[in-house]
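Hi everyone, sorry if this is the wrong subforum. Our group has a chain we'd like a structural model of before ordering constructs, and none of us has done structure prediction before. Sequence below.
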Amino acid sequence: DVPRQGLQLWRSYRPLLARRDVLLLLGLRLSITSFWGMATLALPLLVYRASQSAATAAYYGAVSLAVAAAGQLLTGLLRDRYGRTGPLIISSLGIVASAACLALYTDSVAGLFVFGTSLTATAWAVSTLVPALIAEVADADEKNLLVGLGHMVWSGAMVTGSIMGGILIEVGAHVPFALGVIHASVGTLCTWRLCVRLDNR
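Answer:
Right subforum, don't worry. Here is the predicted structure as tokens:
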């Protein structure tokens, strides 16, 4: 029955949720992805408002994703060559810097293109590095559990971020990005602490 299945599910995930490295990984996912949810809604809308052109908003989406795809290839190369910490911290700080710049250029098409694209590239770079983190954090019999838990947090963060973005952009176009600086800073801190813990194993 449903209550018994729910109890069994909780017993399966409870040992993971008691571990600091897992909580840091989930904190990284939650904080950065919630901001990404806000930005995913806000950026095309702001490009359209600034340009008064739906085509320009579409071009923005295409350009940012194309650059992010190239960035993912570079991220994988750097991860193999230099390890996890440098690429993760640099990408996370890139999200912080992009969010801060976007808060200042919400009515500039050029600014939204440049800093929105840098945000997309760095956010996807972090996402590219997460599967390897999961493999390091989880034991052999926990990997699928942690993948499921991580994706649940990712989905929840995207939903809440999108809702927050829709509300906050009506308060002020800069507000989602100002809040994003805080979210991404928390994610960067979680990333750094997690890398330290993994290095000290």
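For your construct planning: The first helix runs from residue 2 to 17. Helices lie at 2-17, 20-51, 54-82, 85-104, 109-137, 143-171, 175-199.
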